[in-house]
Specification:
- The chain starts with about 25 loop residues before the first strand and ends with a strand.
- It is an alpha+beta fold and about 575 residues long.
- It has eleven helices and 24 strands.
- Helix 4 runs parallel beside helix 6 and helix 5 packs across helix 6.
- The longest helix has 24 residues.
- The strands form four sheets. It has a ten-stranded mixed beta sheet with strand order 6-5-4-3-7-1-8-9-2-10, with helices on both faces. Strands 15, 17, 19, 20, 22 and 23 form a six-stranded mixed beta sheet that branches.
Length: about 575
C-alpha cells in the first residue's frame, strides 16, 4: 500500500532546493485514464460527497475540455484513443466476443512515439487483445505491466487475481506484485520514468479502477461508509479517492525530478460513470451513465497541463472534442513527425488548447454496438455542439436542455434530416471494416504456445462466459475462436474449465473438439483437470470450437484452451 500524503503539489511551481534535471527538448507525456469514472465523479465538478483534492488541483492548473466525448464502453474508447480513428474502423465495437481486439492494420500512439525516439511504457488495462500480436508490447509499448481482459478477475486475467497482491504481465510474462492494483500501476510508471534517463517518454497509465468488482482497501472506503454511503458506492468512491492520491504522488514525483515543467500531463476517463445512478449518485445533470448513447454515457473529463508549453491556468474550453483528437494533438504539441497510415477521424486541436480562435464546426458519431456485426443506428448518437440525435429519431437541443429531457425532433425536421444524412455518409464509409475478424494466430514462431480464453469467443447469442466466476460456476455457454494456423503440424490442445494449474477437477463427463470441418470426441476421466487432444492441422484460417458436456447434458465451451505446436510438417 502506498502511503498517502497531505502535500498538494502544483505543477507550475519549482521546489526550492531541488536541482532540476536537464529537460529534454521534446516534452514528456503522462496520460492517465481511469475506468468507469464519469464526469461527475470528481469533486471539482460538483460532487459534494466524493473528495478528490489532487484532481481538483490538477483541474485548477489545466486546460479543461468541458464538452469532451469518448465511447460509452471501454475497449472501443481505447482503440479510438490509440489510433485517432473511430473504434468501428479499428475493429473494436464490443468489450468481449473477439470484438475487443484491435485490427493489426492500425497504427498506434505508442508506435508513433516510439518511432520518434520516445521511450514508451504502459501500465494497467489494455483491453485490445491478450495474445501475440495484439498485446501492448506488440503494438509499440516498450515496457508494459498489465492485466489481461477487460478487468481484473475477468477470464483472461491471471487466475485468482483480486486487486491485492496480484500477478500481472510484464512485457508479456507473468510476475507477482505486492500491493493494491492502482498503487502498483502508478509505482511501476514511476520506475519506468526514472529509468529513461534524458530520453523523452510516453507513460500511459490506464487503471482498471474504479471498474467492478469494487474491491477497495478499507482505509479508502471507510470515510464514505462513515458518511452512511452504502456499498458498492462507498467502495467505488474509495477507489477513486485512491486514484486521486496516486495522481497527487505522481505529480509530486515529477516535480521532485525536475520533470513537471516539461511534461504534458493528461487526465481523462474511458466512459461515463458506472456509479452515477441512484439517490446517492451525481452525474453533473447528464442523462444516464456508462453504456448509454445519451451524454451520461460518453461525455467525460479531460484535463491537460503543460507549464513549459503554456497550457494550464484553469481554463475551460467548451468546444466539441473527442478521444479521437488526442493522438494528432499530441504529435502536434510535441513536434513528433506523424504520417498517418490511414485517414484519421480525429483532429489536431492544439490551437484550441493554446487559446487561439478559429472557425470550427464538428460532428461526432458515437455508438454502443456490443454485438458481433454492427447494426445501423443501434444505440447511436450524432453529436454537434448544439444537437444530439439519438438512434436516428430523437433530437435534443443541448443549448437549452443539457439533461436531454425533451425530444424536439417533431419541431425540427430539417435538423433531423441533415443529421441523418451525415450519419448515412459516415456509415457508408465504415462498411468495408465490418468484415474484419481478429484472427488469433496459433503455431506461430513468435508464440508456439498460447492460451485461448472464453472472453474472446466469437458468438452472437446470449450466454457469454467472459469472467472467471462464469468458469467456476460452469455456466452453459459456448462459442468459437477464430484461429489462424500459421504452420502445418501436430498440435496439442488442452480443454479446461479453469486453468489446469488451479487443480480444480472438471465438472464435465465428456468432451468434443471441432476445428474447421474436422471433429473429435473423448470421455472425461474422473478427477481430470483437462482433456488433451493431439491433432494434425493444416495451415490456414478456420473456426476452433470445443465442448465440455456435463451430467445435465448441457454443452459448455472450454473456458480455457491451451494450444501448443508439438512438431512441424
Amino acid at each position: 500500500m502506498r502511503s498517502s500524503h497531505c502535500l498538494l503539489v502544483s505543477a507550475g511551481l519549482v521546489l526550492a532546493g531541488v536541482a532540476a534535471a536537464e529537460k529534454p527538448a521534446r516534452p514528456n507525456i503522462v496520460l492517465v485514464m481511469t475506468d468507469d469514472q464519469g464526469y461527475g465523479d470528481i469533486s471539482a465538478h460538483g460532487n459534494d460527497v466524493l473528495r478528490t483534492p489532487f484532481l481538483d488541483v490538477l483541474h485548477s492548473e489545466s486546460v479543461r475540455l468541458t464538452d469532451f466525448h469518448v465511447n460509452p464502453t471501454c475497449a472501443p474508447t481505447r482503440s479510438a484513443l490509440m489510433t485517432g480513428r473511430t473504434n468501428l474502423r479499428a475493429g473494436v465495437w464490443h468489450t468481449i466476443n473477439g470484438r475487443s481486439i484491435m485490427d493489426l492494420k492500425e497504427q498506434t500512439m505508442a508506435e508513433v512515439f516510439a518511432d520518434a525516439g520516445y521511450r514508451t511504457g504502459m501500465f494497467g488495462k489494455w483491453h485490445l487483445g491478450d495474445n501475440w500480436p495484439y498485446r501492448p508490447n506488440d503494438r509499440g509499448f516498450q515496457e508494459t505491466v498489465v492485466h489481461k481482459g477487460g478487468g481484473i478477475t475477468q477470464g483472461p486475467d491471471f487466475w485468482g487475481n483480486d486487486y491485492f497482491d496480484d500477478t500481472y504481465y510484464v512485457d508479456g510474462e507473468p510476475k507477482p506484485f505486492k500491493g493494491y492494483c492502482t498503487d502498483v500501476f502508478f509505482e511501476e510508471a514511476e520506475k519506468f520514468i526514472s529509468s529513461v534517463g534524458d530520453e523523452p517518454f510516453l507513460a500511459y497509465i490506464s487503471t482498471n479502477a474504479p471498474h467492478a468488482p469494487y474491491f477497495c482497501p478499507d482505509e479508502w472506503k471507510k470515510p464514505y461508509l462513515d458518511q452512511g454511503i452504502q456499498e458498492p458506492r462507498a467502495s467505488f468512491y474509495g477507489m477513486i479517492a485512491n486514484i486521486d492520491d496516486n495522481v497527487g504522488q505522481l505529480r509530486e514525483y515529477l516535480q521532485e525530478k525536475g520533470l513537471a515543467e516539461n511534461t504534458i500531463f493528461i487526465f481523462m476517463t474511458d466512459n461515463g460513470s458506472a456509479g452515477a445512478s441512484g439517490a446517492e449518485g451525481f452525474n453533473a445533470g447528464m442523462r444516464f451513465k456508462k453504456g448509454s448513447h445519451y451524454d451520461g454515457g460518453h461525455r467525460v473529463p479531460f484535463f491537460v497541463s503543460w507549464p513549459a508549453g503554456g497550457l494550464g491556468g484553469g481554463v475551460d474550453v467548451d468546444q466539441l472534442t473527442a478521444h479521437l483528437d488526442v493522438l494528432p494533438t499530441l504529435t502536434s504539441l510535441t513536434g513528433v513527425p506523424f504520417s498517418p497510415k490511414h485517414e484519421l477521424d480525429g483532429q489536431d486541436i492544439s490551437w484550441m488548447l493554446r487559446g487561439e480562435t478559429r472557425s470550427y464546426s464538428r460532428t461526432l458519431f458515437i455508438d454502443s454496438q456490443r454485438i458481433i456485426q454492427p447494426r445501423k443506428w443501434k444505440s447511436s448518437a450524432v453529436v454537434t455542439k448544439r444537437w444530439r440525435m439519438i438512434n436516428g429519431a430523437e433530437l435534443y437541443d443541448m443549448s437549452v436542455d443539457p439533461g436531454q429531457t425533451t425530444d424536439v425532433a417533431g419541431e425540427n425536421p430539417g435538423v433531423v434530416a441533415e443529421l441523418r444524412r451525415r450519419y448515412e455518409v459516415y456509415w457508408e464509409s465504415l462498411k468495408p471494416e465490418f468484415a474484419h475478424i481478429a484472427w488469433l494466430p496459433i503455431g506461430a514462431k513468435e508464440m508456439p504456445e498460447l492460451r485461448l480464453y472464453a472472453h474472446d469467443w466469437f458468438m452472437d447469442h446470449p450466454g457469454n462466459a467472459y469472467h472467471q466466476i462464469h468458469a467456476r460456476e460452469f455456466r452453459p455457454a459456448s462459442g468459437s475462436w477464430m484461429v489462424d494456423v500459421r504452420r502445418t503440424g501436430l498440435y496439442e490442445l488442452r480443454l479446461m474449465q479453469v486453468p489446469a494449474e488451479a487443480g480444480v477437477p472438471l465438472r464435465a463427463v465428456r468432451s468434443e473438439l471441432r476445428i474447421g470441418a474436422e471433429s473429435w470426441a473423448k470421455p472425461v476421466e474422473a478427477g481430470a483437470v483437462e482433456v488433451v487432444y493431439y491433432v494434425r492441422l493444416e495451415a490456414g484460417k478456420r473456426k476452433l470450437q470445443g465442448w465440455l458436456i456435463g451430467e445435465d447434458g448441457k454443452n459448455r465451451g472450454p473456458y480455457y484452451l491451451d494450444v501448443k505446436l508439438v512438431s512441424v510438417g
